[in-house]
Automatic annotation (TrEMBL):
Residues 160-265 form the Fibronectin type-III domain. Transmembrane segments: none annotated. SUPFAM superfamilies: E set domains, Fibronectin type III. It comes from Eiseniibacteriota bacterium. InterPro entries: FN3_dom (IPR003961), FN3_sf (IPR036116), GO-like_E_set (IPR015202), Ig-like_fold (IPR013783), Ig_E-set (IPR014756). This is DUF1929 domain-containing protein. It comes from the Bacteria. SMART domains: FN3 (SM00060).
Amino acid sequence: MLPDGRILCAGGNATTSNALIGDPHHGDQHKLDLYSPPYLFTLSGQPAPRPTIVSAPRRAAFGERIVVTQSGNGSASRMTLVRPGAVTHGFDENQRFIELAFHYDFTNASGERVHHVTLPADSAVAPPGEYMLFVLNKAGTPSIARWLRINNRNGQTMPPSAITDLTKSCSDGVTLDLQWSPPAADAGAAIGAPAAEYELRYSTTVPLTDGNFTTAGTLVAGLDEPGDPLASNPDRRVGITLGNLAQPKTYRFRIRSRNYSSGSGVWSALSNELVFTQHDEDCGGAGGGGGGFYDGGFTANRTGRTVALRRPGGGSTDTSFVENTLLPVIRLGSMATDRVRLPNGPKWEGATGRVRLSRAGTLGTEFEGVQLVAVDHATEDEVFVRGGEFVAGTVEPVVSVHHADGRDLTASLASGEGFEGRDGDTLYVDVQHHEPGTLVLSSSKSQLVKFPDVTGIRISTETSSGWVEIGHHNPRKRVSDEAFAAPALDHVRLIFMGEHKLEGVARLVPGGGVRVQHVAPTSVTHSQWGDVTSMVASGEGLPLQGGESAYAEFPYSEAPVDTVRDWYLEVTGSHFQGGGAAIAARMSGADEATPTRFALAPGSPNPFHGSTRLAFELPVRAKVRLEVFDVTGRRVATPVDASYAAGRPSVEWARVGADGRPVAAGVFLCRMTAGEFRAERRLVLVK
């Protein structure tokens, strides 16, 4: 077979010595036949359009995961390796035809389809040497092949690029989710490919360095790349869930990766160091209640000030809903009122504005009140929430901001870079305003812990009797601001109680008054239960569990002449643990004894040591399968595989695996399947 998919057949014979002079066949005979198979043509006999391999590596190692980009003539249906022919007398002693495992990952900016391809790991299947790599489209037409040499090493001499964005995405007090962008396996490669392996280590005492990294603690040894991501996809991040972390305790994590250059590979430099204090948190996505609203983007920072405030705004026509945090960090069952700015107001459709409320995570949120607040003010003023009121004025820059360790953060805050604070960081703000006043903070990056754990930023001002705390600021997921009244604003101290980003700090110079108008919703639609307008209007509340949402619609009204209108969403509510069955019965008016939908409850207890109870709800008789998987995706147990009548069955899982042996401590995923219904819960087994 030739690289273009045609078949070459060649041969010949030596003629006898008494061949006639002048015979056109005098001399050795050389014959060559070139066959073009039907897969190279359309039904009408025209050459079939081929896919094109834009890029592929020239050399690779056994078991390596490579990147192949393809353009033109449809998507790839197959990828194959063909060993070049070495045939004599009808026997090909070098014959190899290998189907490759691959998947499409994304389309790059040039319109080329990027694929992730796994090469055979066994040299008995694919002996070392040269291969033709083909990509076939859905019609079965092959590309022009690329030559690929497979060996026990791929010849890479450069280490993978270092990971620079190791971050914590979520923590629930016992487990921890870490994320990072995958590096290219070769720092010099034009197109990145997955690293062969990661090594993640931690310390609870000293910073991790090249000198102590290999002797530091490890929660995951020889971590293969989760999800087989591609380094060439800028939008793809990967991560891992870790368990058995103590809290409250400060952890320091760093990670490195190796490539396929040899059996042991070449390791990258160490990543950035991730330092945080483990709290009892809620992995709730957008936050406490999870509020969504129409967001047109952010404007640039104000200029000409020592320290600027980064405020939402702008004129984007994006019609999507963007989530921000509602009701952050309140005690379970405690009622609170929260007001969040809607940068472009609700999502207006004609004379109707829409706001989406949503809930993520393991907790639920009950909204006792939902309304819009229209705040009209003079054009030269800006509006902020201060306690339970709205205040207007202009912002004045502070003089300087310094870290307790001496670092001057004034310029970085003024440039819009902000300050990424960690638990225990302390900042001193020089305002030089000796009279009572109002301080404004702009922040982002919420850290949602469960009561009584506390995060946020503690705010104190210096008085003649010492430092006096004037407020506690809880940042939201996205940039937002809050104002605080102070008896004096000469010097201010900010103490970080968690991982948050300070976007800006300023003093509010009082301006004109504000006109406040509360607007009730004309309709509220629950994602599961439909129209719940009357329930909200009567004060019964709007309950949302993880994965549920509600759309509230409001009427449009004009702002008075010569004023500017800011829109806020005001909600009153509380968080609760679980409660799915009771909510379903209440929403539908049904008896609580009969479930109205399929559901999988959290394990009880969770985390657990000896055993945990797995409960589920069935509105009708159904075949139920409960499976438990470890963090690598391997099924370790099947506690339930049977039919059940409608009701609320439960089973006890005593940490026994499929092989009858006790399962080791770790983080697991419990998956429930009942017909088309599917749900998952995380389980944590501790020692």
